[in-house]
Write a structure and sequence with these properties.
276 residues; Rossmann fold; 10 strands; single chain; eight-stranded mixed beta sheet; alpha/beta
Length: 276
């Protein structure tokens, strides 16, 4: 493991002592304990890994997951025979990733990575950019660490299908949270990704795919009670009570059962302009 630069990891050279963590996302430190159980854990991570793997050339490595979190997507890539390394700014999240992946994860900021230029074959990010202060810097850094011909696969946020009853309840709650936070949306669109990526020399294509999983009203109520979304933790307790009250009431009114959740997600497959 590399903490702050200067060491090496799986043959990838660090940038030296000047590499540093430029920003901290403390809410993810606080969420590490419940992150997997409120987001589908290894099963859901494996679904994302399958879609990512289908868009990466087989046999090339290492593949860098920027924002590896607890390692559920990286684990799915490993199971598909990709050699993976992971970077994240949260030590508690990395503790869990290390249990899953072994000593192939490092502590570092996506905006200033402790990696040498042209040191990784491809890169992946799943639900990262909404948590980054300056997304453009992430794309510049990924462009720097990728080898010629490397791809950067970015999974953005997702939206609930019309028949996903629980999903619509949560989306309404999220919209209320956004309004209370001054109208700043939590999510990142594929179009935004392309806008941020172009100045770093990337071009790309957008792919949409459906995702299914199951959850129960009680699981969603527990996630709300435990403030499982970072945006909720940006509010005070009175504001949280206001924005979650309709969702809590709607979920409590539902019969307790497993409900099929259906989401549509977007993925952007980026490559340096002029390369395949």
């Amino acid at each position: 493991m590399m903490a702050g630069g200067g060491a090496t990891l799986d043959g990838v050279s660090g940038r030296g002592p000047e590499a540093r963590i430029a920003s901290v996302v403390p809410e993810f430190d606080e969420l590490a304990e419940i992150y997997d159980q409120t987001r589908g854990g290894e099963e859901r991570g494996d679904h994302y890994a399958a879609d990512v793997a289908a868009r990466l050339p087989a046999g090339e490595g290492p593949v860098l997951e920027v924002g590896v979190g607890t390692g559920v997507v990286a684990l799915g890539l490993m199971r598909r025979r990709f050699r993976v390394i992971g970077l994240d700014v949260s030590s508690p999240m990395l503790t869990r990733a290390r249990v899953r992946l072994g000593p192939v994860v490092m502590l570092g900021d996506a905006m200033e990575m402790p990696l040498a230029a042209a040191s990784v074959a491809h890169a992946v990010s799943v639900w990262l950019l909404q948590a980054v202060a300056e997304p453009e810097r992430v794309f510049r850094e990924v462009s720097r660490v990728l080898r010629p011909g490397g791809r950067y696969v970015v999974c953005t946020t997702q939206r609930a299908a019309d028949d996903d009853v629980i999903g619509k309840i949560i989306e309404d709650m999220a919209a209320a949270v956004d309004a209370r936070r001054g109208g700043r949306p939590r999510g990142v669109t594929a179009a935004q990704v392309l806008d941020w990526a172009r100045p770093a020399g990337f071009a790309g294509d957008i792919a949409s795919f459906d995702r299914e999983f199951r959850s129960t009203p009680s699981q969603e109520l527990e996630a709300i009670a435990r403030r499982a979304w970072p945006a909720l933790r940006a509010l005070d307790e009175g504001e949280i009570e206001d924005v979650t009250r309709p969702a809590v009431a709607a979920l409590r009114a539902m019969p307790e059962a497993e409900y099929r959740r259906r989401m549509t997600a977007e993925m952007v497959v980026l490559h340096r302009a002029g390369t395949a």
